[in-house]
Amino acid sequence: LILAGDFQVNDAVLAGVPVERVSGRLRGPQGVSGDIRALKTQTITVEEILLEDGPARVALSGWIRPGDALALEVVGTAVPLERLSRFTSPYAHLAGAASFSGSVEGRFTQPQAVVKVNVPAMQVNGQDLGAVTSQIGYAAGNIELAGLTVTQGEQVARVDRATFRAADGALSLSASVEQGDLARLDAILRSVRFPDTPAGREQQQRLAALPTGMSGRFDGTFALSGRWPELSGRAQGVLAQAELGDLKIQRLAGSAAWTPHEISLQEGVLISEGVDLRGKIHRRADGRLATDLSLGKTNVDALRALALKVAALDPEPKKGARPAGFGALLRDAVAGLPDPLTGTVAAEIALEGSRGALDGQARLQLEDLLIGEARFQSAGATVRWDRGHMAADDLALRSEGVDLRGSFQRGTDGQLALQLHLGETEMAAARDLARKVASATQGTQIGRFLPESLPGVLADLPEPLEGSLSGSFSLAGKPGALSGSINARAQRLRLGESGITAVSAEGTWSPEEWNFPAIAIVGEECALSGSIARGPGGRLAGEIVTRDGCLEGLRSMASALSLLRRFPPAQELMARVDSLPTPLVGDIDGSVRFSGTLFDPEMQVALTGSNLVAGTYKLAGVTADADIKGNLVTVRDLRVRTNGGELIARGHVDLDGPMALTVAGNDFSLEALGPLLPNGRKLTGHVDLSANVGGTTDIPEADARIVVRDATIAGMRFSRIEANDVRLTERRVEFGRVDLEQGPIAGTLSGSVPFRWDPLEIPTDEPIQLSVSLSQFDFSTAMLANDQSTGIKVTSTPEVRPLLDAVESASGKAMAEIVVTGTLREPNMDGRIELHEGQVKLAALDSHLREVEARLRLEGPWIVVEQLSAKSDGGGLLSATGRAGIRAQGDQVLDVRLHADRFQMGVRDLAGVHGLGIKGVTSGDVALVGRLTAPVLTGKLQVSKAQMNVPSEITPRLPRPPLGLLDPALNIDMEVDEDSWVRRGNAISARVSAGVGIRGKLSNPVVSGRATVERGDLRYAGISFRLQPGGTVFFSYDTPGSLVARLDLTADTRVRAAAPATGQRRRYIVTMHVTGTIPNVNVAVTSDPPDLPQHRLMAILARTDQFEALARGDIMDEVLRDQVVDIVAGTVLPQVFEPIEEGLAEALGLDEVNFDYGFDRPLRVDARKEVLPRLFVSYNRDMGQGQFVDSGEQWSVTYRLYQRLYVGWRRDTTGNKDRLVLEGSFKF
């Protein structure tokens, strides 16, 4: 068989690929005999097989042994890659012309091929791939790729070796890239088209989600091995200056290795926009992940921006499309961060575990951190977590004024362990920082880890808040069952207005017990220290001690702890602190011991206080020994010292129920109860009491026995008050029997008065019912003058003092029965007051009032004078009746009538003139009428047999009478007749009748009248004159002015004198007529018979100086007037000037001051001072121009030679005259 020849096939289709022409030349074996199947063992020589399609040429040559083996050489030129697109569709459309050469040999059923391929310019989906060269080998279904190179400019991609075993699908690849262009890779990837299947559409969506505008350069190597698609491999590369959408990467490098079930990244580096992240990642076959990352010092803003940009690489899938990827996780994490959040961060992170249950460790260091408005200088921690267990070591936080360090752990079973160490930290800075952090993290992922009550707790902190805090704090255990410890101190504190300056605490606690062996709170004026513990059985044991504690400071300290009001167990305690009285001051020492349980505590209180003020109460000292269990207070011993007394109480008090106290007081002062009386009337006295107190704290009740000594109540004194069966109820104080004693006065009281606990007071508008009985006692003015006798302070009462001064003495027997009803504001009094066997001596009267009997009746607002009678020791009767309204809300009308029947009395110092007195028999009626605020004293009196003594000096010496209880207007007329006389020593004795009117007011009386002389004698210049009837004296007196008198008197005398004509002695009647107002009176003298010359009359009447005046020819009337005036000047003026002289000498430090006075001449002033022993300086001056001398002044310097003999120099300023003088004086 000879097989040989040429063939050509036009428009051929080979394996579905159209070929324009296929031609060839074969040469077979010769002489082959047998079946055609024997041809399988023969060799067919292929001289050439040529495939032609346009410029493309593929030539084959070699031999074929059908069914056995073959060996062919293959050469191709300009082969279009589009012809291969049917194999790459729809993923890629290839373009370009390839040249290749190689061989195919081996067994016919298992040929082997080696082909070298060269594509000068290859395109994939229209994207330039560059020049591609490679060697492809095939043997036994295995494909081997070697030396694959893709070159475009500086970009070179190599596949050093790649093999694929079809039998088991094993793939092995080793490749590298130099100066790879990420933008070209991005363009090629985006050009890939996937089949229109669910999986293809998903892959197409992933490609579309890649960030647009990717660029950059990358270098690296990678290797693949294993069965498709479960491949293993490794890679190492660097991506530099890359942009992935908005993400800019300066450097991305690392090495990776993976298997179908594991993947690891080693020496990874990511440097992007201020972020420096390095580390390694390993995902094991079981899906667990292990990472070891290191974040260099990175700006937090940049890190957050990078996270958002990385998250953008994995866009959110459509609803139900696929589970959220890393992009959603990153977005959620960033959204949970507070805003703003700035600063720098460095971290080392190691993670291990499965997704959603990662364990690991992270070391974080942040600097210049700003969270919201909270700024931190630095913050750091080492955080570890493992299967629900979490730990944070080396916690450190530093901010302005804050230094916090510590650690934290949380176990898988919920166990917590917290250790905090606080350096010297400013409390205000810590509070402000906490508030800012709480505000910034509200509504964020971080905020979920903060207690919901934290903002409220921070808001309750007091203002201002100053001072420093340091110490340590620990917690361990599960929430709700935590154990812990504290050792902290705060110094230089200012907590609101509390006055707390320092606090320290040391202790431990657990769910079953706690122990604080050292607690101290120091204030500005007080300090508390102590310990408290709770045992496993819930029993409390502790003690709080204060030394020299100030109550006001302690309350301020307690009030400042407003934070405690958030906790129900402390709310009741804080409410009790708020209800304490104000002011609350004093010093206190003592202790409080705790026992019992937390919900049923027991306390033993032992306190001693001094100088205490609680509201309106002042306590000198308090000693308390009591037990407190719940609401039950057992008082073992309570002693209160106030105003020198002591009050003792024992028993028990249930704060929400009944109480039973035994109270005893010794020498207890009444002063503290003063505010209970209306208008805060002062109370004094000393009380001994014993009482059983019951009821409740809101409405106490008591049965008491009270003894009061030396008491003053409502202005009245009592030497002893003994009250038995006193009952105190909710609204009344009931007095069973009260015995009253004051000197000789004794009485009883019973009834009830209103009382109110809240507020503590005796109401003035609620009804009272009191009965007072005073048994008969001896009464005297000595008792009134001595407050200790009656208890009525009349001596110190300005309104009553004038009345006491007007009564010189009084005595008698008195008794009273009075019932008081109405209210304290408007009391009604009914009863009687009686006085028997009385004797009264008025200070202005010479006579005594004897057998005084008085009976007064009280009828509500009225005092009714049923009977008042008295007898004078000189004879006569005085009686009075009437009534007076005394209550302010009543009529206040006076109608008291006084009747005198031939009542003999004598009055001294009449009208305020010392020594001016009158005695006589008085009859008439006087009435005190009108309103109490404007009374009038009116009436008419008839005085007979009066004797009036006039002193030589009638100038008033008594001051204006003081204002008494009443100051009535005066309207009294008095007639003096029936043998009434006026006498002035030996100078005058006259029988007169007169009419006198008394007007004005009792405090300022005006007295005026007219007296007519009936007969009498006048002695003048040693001569006795007989007053002629009919002479008158008009007088008026206005206290405290001078007495004004106008005279019209005639007097005569009989003398013997020689008659001028005969020289014989005979009798003459000399008449003197005095008229005018003192001191300006006119005196006329005549004689009968009238032949007696004037000078003879003056010789009889005048003194020597008058004779000299007459000798000069002066007028006789002026001489007589001068005589009268000299009498006045010699008696009146010395009494005026002597006090002035003494006062001036003492005030000016002079030895003496003298006034030389006289009528019708200047007033002369003399002053003298001894400047050295026996050396005197004198000054003399005439005050004004007189009739006899000129006004002038003199200065003298004199030396005392002997007693009243002086020598010296005198300067007279009137004529500028200097003189040497020798001056002497003598007394006579």
Q: What is the secondary structure topology, with strand pairs?
A:
Elements (H helix, E strand, L loop, with lengths): L3 E11 L2 E11 L16 E10 L2 E10 L3 E12 L4 H4 L5 E2 L1 E11 L3 E14 L2 E13 L2 E11 L2 E11 L4 E12 H10 L6 H12 L5 E13 L2 E15 L2 E12 L4 E10 L2 E9 L5 E11 H13 L13 H10 L5 E14 L2 E15 L2 E13 L2 E11 L2 E9 L5 E11 H15 L12 H6 L5 E14 L2 E15 L4 E10 L4 E10 L3 E8 L5 E11 H9 L8 H11 L5 E13 L4 E14 L2 E13 L2 E11 L2 E10 L4 E11 L13 E13 L4 E14 L2 E13 L3 E11 L2 E10 L14 E12 H5 L1 H4 L10 H6 E16 L4 E16 L6 E12 L1 E11 L4 E9 L7 E15 L9 E15 L2 E16 L19 E16 L3 E14 L2 E17 L2 E5 L4 E7 L5 E15 L6 E13 L2 E9 L5 H8 L2 H8 L4 H16 L1 H16 L3 E5 L6 E10 L2 E9 L9 E10 L2 E8 L4 E8 L4
Parallel strand pairs: 50-51
Antiparallel strand pairs: 1-2, 2-3, 3-4, 4-5, 5-7, 6-8, 7-8, 8-9, 9-10, 10-11, 11-12, 12-13, 13-14, 14-15, 15-16, 16-17, 17-18, 18-19, 19-20, 20-21, 21-22, 22-23, 23-24, 24-25, 25-26, 26-27, 27-28, 28-29, 29-30, 30-31, 31-32, 32-33, 33-34, 34-35, 35-36, 36-37, 37-38, 38-39, 39-40, 40-41, ...
Helix pairs in contact: 4-5
